[in-house]
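PROTEIN ENTRY
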Amino acid sequence: MVRKSIVMDKHLLYEVNRFAEKDQRDFSNTVRYATRIGLIALENPDLTVGEIKDILEAQLDAEAKRVSALDSDEI
């Protein structure tokens, strides 16, 4: 992982800290998560933030092998 310093105004710092506490994340993970969502939103303006979060959670579930392929015969 690469370390970088960033400059932000006090209001943004307050908002990131508030979001981190609400989601029980540390500051660095919160900045990474919010940045990732923001970049995906910029690249996909037709998706809502909720949809983006659902996609990211589904990717994590797939990586952790908590989901399996759907068998169309079982439907």
